[in-house]
Design goal:
Elements: E1 10-13, H1 23-37, H2 44-62, H3 66-81, H4 87-96, H5 98-102, H6 111-119, E2 123-129, H7 132-142, E3 150-154, H8 159-169, E4 176-180, H9 183-192, E5 196-199, E6 220-222
Parallel strand pairs: 1-2, 1-4, 2-3, 4-5, 5-6
Helix pairs in contact: 2-3, 8-9
Length: 233
């Protein structure tokens, strides 16, 4: 049965953990870090809570990306061991996180074909946040940029960012849809800016991107997979 088509002129896409896997690599590094740390009294859940608090503060102060993540791991070690990290410990943390630098962009299933179909019907924009150099490397490697009318890398994705995006490209927010996996960065601020949103959850979404969505909000379409977009757009 054909699903009801959504009124749309512009589709805006998140990148990390929507178009390709990202946070799963950070989670693997965190698992290795927790194994390596071997705290004498705190368990893994307690250590992770400390790390989450540090990451939350550093995201506000320093932004996102691998460099900030490494900073957070070092600060977590120092807080738990109550002393500065040694040069050897910093080298070992760098070695644990080497996979972040070497990681290749792995597209979600069906992303390229889905974007190819949607690009023939809508204006497509890409909006990603984080370290500019790091995000640009992913954009250059993904092989998807030809689908988009423009790609923007921003420091934060809040309501002002979405309002700026609408002004920059001259579109009516009511006929635009933000598509992403993060309630905090993709769905809630887009809705606050008057846009609609498509929530495609990812099991590996960063814990700091979690937030509650209103189940009664008819402006949010919830899908299981990226390819489901073709049933509605």
């Amino acid at each position: 049965m054909m699903e009801q088509r959504r009124d749309a002129a512009v589709l805006v896409f998140d990148a990390d953990d929507t178009l390709w896997e990202n946070n799963v690599v950070f989670e693997r590094v965190i698992d290795d870090f927790l194994d390596w740390l071997e705290h004498p009294t705190l368990d893994r859940v307690q250590i992770r809570a400390v790390l989450d608090d540090i990451e939350r503060a550093n995201a506000v102060a320093h932004g996102y990306g691998s460099k900030v993540f490494l900073r957070s791991l070092g600060e977590c070690l120092e807080r738990l061991r109550e002393r500065p990290a040694t040069e050897r410990e910093r080298r070992e943390i760098d070695e644990l996180a080497a996979a972040l630098v070497a990681h290749q962009v792995e597209l979600m299933p069906g992303v390229a074909d889905t974007l190819d179909a949607l690009a023939g019907r809508y204006d497509l924009l890409l909006l990603t946040k984080g370290d500019r150099e790091e995000q640009q490397r992913k954009l250059d490697a993904c092989g998807l940029l030809h689908h988009f009318d423009a790609a923007h890398i921003v420091m934060e994705k809040d309501v002002d960012t979405y309002r700026w995006l609408a002004r920059e490209h001259g579109f009516d927010p009511a006929r635009a849809w933000m598509i992403g996996n993060s309630p905090k960065s993709d769905i809630l601020p887009a809705r606050a800016a008057g846009m609609n949103a498509v929530f495609i959850p990812n099991d590996n979404t960063w814990v700091l991107e979690h937030d509650e969505l209103d189940p009664a909000d008819e402006g949010v379409l919830r899908l299981k997979e990226f390819t489901d977009l073709l049933r509605y757009f």
